[in-house]
């Protein structure tokens, strides 16, 4: 009896690190560029994750947004300083340009049918880059939050199609209309 209890205990000690790393897979992920972030959160929809560092003295955050995608689709993440949904969001979109390079740029989601053209965001964005690793698109950026505190509404999204280097509309059902929330970068 005691022996089998010890065996079970040993077995559960072997298993539990695997379970906890699955539950926290965002923190176990290693970026190919060796970038590290102090915090990460698995977003509740579209398999996406957000990694961030908040530098309080300069009120900036460095982020990585990561989501599964095929090489012909697009991903986007943004903050909405003016509301809680898509419209008004200052987003960063990433996809494969027709020239074969991945591109990422800020774009303003000013309606439910935004142009998706590059546009200056309402807060500073720097150090923007993107990469495609293991069928996931990753956006890196540094945002100046210009006195906005640490808590924000954010939105994230993915779509299957890019036409003439313009991301086309995402699905308007299921997880694609649930992918929004609040984030506290403190
Ligand atoms: C995030 O902060 C940690 C700890 O200060 C630092 O080691 C790391 O390089 C920072 N990452 C980025 C992407 O700025
Ligand atoms: C592809 O186009 C993008 C956007 O114009 C540009 O930034 C990038 O340098 C181009 N890449 C190549 C390999 O031409």
From TrEMBL:
The keyword Signal applies. One of its GO terms (cellular component) is membrane. It comes from the Eukaryota. Residues 1-20 form the signal peptide. Residues 46-159 form the DOMON domain. Keywords: Membrane, Signal, Transport. It is found in: Membrane. InterPro entries: AIR12_DOMON (IPR045265), DOMON_domain (IPR005018). This is Cytochrome b561 and DOMON domain-containing protein At5g47530-like. It comes from Phoenix dactylifera.
